[in-house]
Amino acid sequence: MSPEENKQIVRRFIEEAINKGDVDASGDYMAEDVIELAPFPGQGPGLSGLKDVLREMLLAFPDMRWTVEEQIAEADKVLTCFIWTGTHSAPFFGVPATGNPVTVWGMVIDRLENGKVKETRILMDALGLMKQIGA
After folding, report:
1. Under a CB-based contact definition with an 8 Å cutoff, are residues 48 and 39 in contact?
2. pTM for this entry
3. Coil, strand or helix at 36
């Protein structure tokens, strides 16, 4: 697949699995044995671990919406810079729901194989997120 095609795969994952909340669609874009190189605390392995994290985030921030700010692709890798927004509506990492709106920046580096993400590494402003929800 070309770098441009890989960028579109990542964008479709963000739109379908996150913005539309169809976590099960993740399998259309992620390999079953996808490797998270910087996993969330307690994140299980593979696609099922990724789906669990997405479900937890969508539970805590049900109106979560990701916007792609920039993408750079070369060979089999895609760097996606994003901002996501949402409302803290359920407990998240031990912090009870606050109703606070959040805006979080980050970037993710994905490596694709055969049209699916095989390795991913997310870097997100976790400290800023936790401050916004009053942790």
Report:
1. no
2. 0.95
3. strand
Q: How far is CA 76 from the centre of its chain?
A: 19
How many angstroms separate the CA atoms of 119 and 131, rounded?
29
Q: Tell me the domains of the chain and their CATH numbers.
A: 3-132 (3.10.450.50)
d(CA 79, CA 30): 16
- Nearest partner of 50 among 28, 75, 23, 72, judged by Cα: 23
Q: Which amino acid is at 124?
A: M
pLDDT tens digits, 21-61: 999 999 999 999 999 999 998 999 999 999 999 999 999 99
Q: Is the dihedral of CA 43, 46, 48, 53 positive or negative?
A: positive
The CA distance from 127 to 104, in Å, is 10
Measure CA 119 to chain center.
13
